[in-house]
Write a structure and sequence with these properties.
Keywords: Membrane, Transmembrane, Transmembrane helix. By secondary structure, this protein is α+β, with helices and mostly antiparallel strands. The chain has two helices and four strands. The protein has one domain. Helix 1 runs antiparallel to helix 2. The longest helix is centred in the middle third of the chain and has 40 residues.
Length: 135
């Protein structure tokens, strides 16, 4: 499903560029083409972003529960505010507060922003990585 949204977004973008080039002498048509590309493209982008965030949160819950914890809070943070030394433009960093054996612990997750497979590294990002409290 994610790949489908991405392909629709790419096709829309390329079609818009081709149409703008073809109608570049008619300002009114260019404005209409840009308007409709935004009107159609923005919801596709928002759906892709929502799906990616949901996939990351499902992965966070899966891993924390595998280790016997219960997720209390998930927050996106800047890479400079995390213990990860490096992060790329294709990564999202999460700070997770979770409950384990009555204690509130912290985990950090460097996720990969790849809507096709959130475990598959991409060129502008670093590998997926977890840092968890050891108690």
């Amino acid at each position: 499903m994610g790949v489908l949204f991405f392909l629709l977004f790419v096709i829309l973008f390329i079609s818009g560029v081709i149409l703008v080039i073809k109608h570049r002498k008619n300002t009114r048509n260019v404005v209409k083409i840009i308007f409709w590309c935004i009107v159609i493209g923005l919801p596709i982008y928002l759906l892709m972003n929502h799906r990616l965030n949901r996939m990351h949160k499902l992965e966070i819950h899966r891993v924390i529960e595998f280790y016997g914890g219960h997720v209390e809070e998930i927050k996106k943070v800047n890479s400079k505010d995390s213990p990860f030394g490096e992060s790329g433009s294709a990564n999202t960093i999460y700070k997770i507060q979770y409950l384990s054996n009555g204690e509130v612990l912290t985990a950090w997750y460097r996720a990969i922003d790849n809507i096709g497979d959130i475990h598959e590294p991409v060129s502008k990002g670093y590998d997926e990585q977890w840092i968890m409290d050891q108690k």
